[in-house]
Amino acid sequence: MRHTILALALALTFTTAAKAQTPTPDQSALTLNHIEKTSPLPNGLAVTVNGAVMQITALRPDVIRVRIGRNGRLPEDASWAVLPAARTATSAVQPDSSREAVGFHTDALRVSLDRRDGTLRVTDLAGHLLQQDLRPVEYHGSSFRLYKVMQPNEHFFGLGDKVGPLDRRNQAFTDWNTDSFGYQESTDPIYKSIPFFISFTQGRALGVLFDNTFRSSFDFGKELSNAYSFGAPDGPIDYYLFYGPTPRKVIETYAWLTGPSPLPPLWSLGFQQSRYSYYPESRVMEIANKLREEKIPADALYLDIDYQQNNRPFTVDTVKFPHFAQMIQQLAAEHFHVVAITDLHIANLPHQNYAPYDTGTAGDHFVKNPDGSVYTAAVWPGPAVFPDFTQASSRAWWGTLYTDFSKLGIAGFWNDMNEPAIFNVPTKTMPDNVQHRIDEPGFAPRTATHLEIHNIFGMENTRATYDGLLKINPNERPFVLTRASYAGGQRYAATWTGDNSSTWNHLRLTTPMLLNLGLSGFGMSGADVGGFAGTPQPDLLTKWLELGTFQPIDRDHTAKGTGDQEPWVHGIAQEAIRRRYIEERYHLMPYLYTLAEEMSRTGVPIVRPLFVEFPNATPDGHPLDLDASGEFFFGPDLLVAASPYPDELDAYELRLPPGDWYDYWTGKLAAHITTTSSRDAEQPLATANANKSEAVTQPARPLLITPSLEVLPVYVRGGSILPLQPLVQSTEETPQGPLTLRVYAPHSQNENCSGTVYQDDGISFAFRQGAYLRMDSTCKVEDGQLHIHIGAHQGSYQPWWKQLRIEVYGWRSAATAATVNGSSVSLAPDSNETAFTVDDTGSGLDIVLK
User: Fold this and answer.
1) Bridge partners of residue 231, in order along the sequence
2) What is the spatial distance between Cα 316 and Cα 323, in angstroms, rounded to a whole number?
3) HSE-up of 287 (CA within 13 Å, CB side)?
4) Residue 678's pLDDT is what?
5) Which of 47, 193, 300, 636 is the most exposed place for a label (fewest CB within 10 A)?
């Protein structure tokens, strides 16, 4: 009997549960599957579908914008991310119409809307599918989601500093800026929300920017094996599709839409030493003096929150730092640039002569609660208030707070905790209903909740800082470092990957995070070298400092309570290795600065995945990076081949793209790759060119690298002309000697060979008026001779060098002489290079090696 009652009870329970799980009709649901009206536009198509308005327009032949408004009108045409000139651009189209579809085409793309169900399809003119709706757009109240067909060979990159593998396929992510101390490989979300990704299919790239500031989400095949999707709980459907077909072109177009990173001050590319925190004043000077005594090149020292009085932004603790102004001046005299933290939480201190609070209150510049009172929450200084950065007037006020620090000579500023991070609350941030007043050119004045503003709060914080510094010093490039941001935030600040950990796994995670940040606009980025949380093992710190040499920002930083993490800890043997790599960064400074200048014009990041340089490196079109975890390009010419698992002692596979590859450290030809890699490790990576005695015969399996503490493998692409300088201890020190141009010779007249060096004063905006130097060089093989052309100087800037040292690698000749502008010069060949020094008059040189 008891069993029968139990069975009846269980049956009733399951029936009730099943009823509870049966979805009830969503009265607010709307599927956009019935086209009611179509109207051609000079630049696209306007459609009414199920009462909603859809507009598909061409901004350029290769850029399409899609906007949808549910209530019979389009959303406000405004954006925090996309530049007005790009957003309002227009390109003429040719209309297309058939019984099945209506649409248009440009010189690059074909766009069609299915008349039967309203689904969108975009192809190139050859018919290659770039994006197609899996099903019609669906609304559920204010929430919506767009499902796109995911092709079997489609891969996805971008979304900023998400954790995990480089390829986003089979992963899902949320965009909601979050203070994620101690994040791990599966943690999501973390600090930044960059709703942009690149779809890469068989060598063709498509960029997708989903411009919605609410808590959006992205799914790349995790929910459905044949679809990727994105959506948000509120806000506009407003997204951009832009075609390459190369990844580089997509990156450049993203920069056209959202702006590139500005040219940074030269010193910010030098080695940076930091911790939470260096204090008191004597400790700061001890670190500075030790760097100079140990001859470890360095350019920046950071002051974390302990330099402030009771953690209050824009104050100085005069007990810990009794001679603060003199300290800044003394450090500047030693060629150190001080970067000071200035968090956005202003201590709530009425009537206590705390100027940031008093002036902010007087100007009504703080975020408010729904009842109109000022929102207050606990952060580092205790109860704090927060600037309303969506008001242009409040950003201008914030910028004035930097006046005194700038006059003292502080060179850069660090905007941390700007997700915004809040203490003692489960959400770690402001309540959803906190009010932000939008009073901003290009936007209709209104009040928005924190749900809409949260993801742009950190970006607008850095915008206020950057613009304020420009107003204080109009001809000095600002340096701002931020933890949180949104698409377009690269216009105002550099960034880093947040509070990582001192583990081998976090060293491994650094590369894909920085690569995806670079693809997402943030080419000026870095990770806390050595790890922030915890004390690194000696070998871990050494390997991390090696890797940091080849990253845009090289900052050694650690948390309070951890062990010392400066390069000299752990003994002289470890220090020697670390010094060598930091020195190499300074040798490469002409190359690195040239990359930064390129990035400021094109948006192409300093560090980049292999598929950016070699989009067609594999037979089936998959990205070579999927076979080469740990490898990346440092500019177009240097390939860094770190171990995919740096704590493992086993040999690992090296996957090189096609071409000649030289060992950066020895100058020797390391490989001549004539075939591309396969996903199958049993297949050959490369074969030797039997007609070239210089080629290294490759085995049937991929090349193997045996890990070494002392060596980070780096390879130079054949056909590169690499600029290097004599060693200096800071970027303010003038190099003594010639500029070196390393020419890595091509092996045939069909191979390209080129290089560029860019210089300016490294500080001001005088380059905009022509005060720069650009020198382009080329080389080619012709009639058995190597011809090198050093271009004439462009621009009015006078460089530090008077001579050029030409080093040629990979060219073998019995001749012991060459000609420079027709005159003979003596050569000094050795086993790896042929070298000579010539005067650089600025008018160009023609060199022939016979």
Assistant:
1) 145, 217
2) 10
3) 27
4) 43
5) 636
CB 243 within 8 A of CB 108: yes
Strands 346-347 and 377-379: unpaired
For the whole model, what pTM was predicted? Answer: 0.94
Q: How far is CA 81 from CA 29, 77, 268, 603, in A?
A: 29, 12, 25, 15
Mean pLDDT confidence for 315-342: 98
Distance CA 418, CA 482 (A): 8
CA dist., res. 322 & res. 767, Å (int): 39
Is residue 559 predicted with pLDDT exceeding 50?
Answer: yes
Q: What is the pLDDT of residue 784?
A: 85
Told to judge if 419 belongs to the known catalytic residues of this protein, a careful annotator would answer: yes
Q: Count of CB atoms within 10 A of residue 748's CB?
A: 9
Q: What whole-number distance in Å separates Cα of residue 610 and Cα of residue 657?
A: 8
**∠ at Cα 500 (496, 504), nearest 5°?**
120
Of the residues 238, 281, 460, 499, only one is catalytic, namely: 499
Please report where in the chains the tokens 């010639």 appear, as a residue: 738
Q: Is the pLDDT of residue 11 over 70?
A: no
| Enclosing H/E stretch for 343 | none
Mean pLDDT confidence for 449-470: 98
Tell me how far the alpha carbon of residue 605 is from its chain's centroid.
7
d(CA 566, CA 769): 40
Does residue 77 contact residue 254 with C-beta atoms inside 8 Å?
no
Average pLDDT (211-227) is: 98
For the chain, give the number of residues.
850
Phi, psi of 267 (to 5 degrees): -60, -30
pLDDT reported for residue 751: 83
Cα separation, 161 vs 230, whole angstroms: 18
Angle between helices 504-519 and 538-548 (to 10 degrees): 20
Q: Spell out the alpha helix ranges (H) of 654-751.
A: none
Could you please report the per-residue DSSP string of 728-747? Answer: -SSTTSPP-SPEEEEEE--S
Measured distance CA(786)–CA(848) in Å, rounded? 6
Residue 464: count other Cβ atoms within 10 Å of its Cβ: 27
- With contact defined as beta carbons under 8 Å apart, do 324 and 314 qualify? no
CA-to-CA distance for 741 and 725, rounded, in angstroms?
A: 9
Beta-carbon contacts of 235 under 8 Å, excluding residues fewer than 6 positions away, are 75, 142, 212, 213, 214, 216, 452
- pLDDT reading at 666 higher than 70: yes
Q: Cα–Cα–Cα angle for 723, 509, 271, nearest 5°? A: 40
Q: Tell me whether residue 133 is one of the annotated catalytic residues.
A: no
Strand locations in 274-316, DSSP E?
300-303
- List, in sequence order, every beta strand (DSSP E) within 606-679: 607-608, 631-634, 638-641, 652-654, 659-663, 669-673
Q: Is 682 a catalytic residue?
A: no
In b/e form, how buried is each residue of 826-847, taking b as 16+ CB within 10 angstroms?
ebebeebbbbbebebeeeebeb
Burial class (CB in 10 A: 0-12, 13-18, 19+), 403: middle
Region at 523 (left for phi over 0; alpha for psi -120 to 50; beta for the rest): alpha
Domains and CATH numbers, the chain: 29-258 (2.60.40.1760), 266-344+397-421+453-600 (3.20.20.80), 721-849 (2.60.40.1180)
Active-site residue, from 419, 583, 625, 637: 419
CB 63 within 8 A of CB 56: no
Bridge partners of 300, per DSSP, are: 272, 337
Of the candidates 154, 299, 343, 416, the residue annotated as catalytic is 416
* Whether the predicted pLDDT of 528 surpasses 80: yes
What's the one-letter identity of residue 534? G
Largest CA distance in the chain: 112
- pLDDT-derived band at 688 (thresholds 50, 70, 90) equals very low
DSSP class of 260 = P
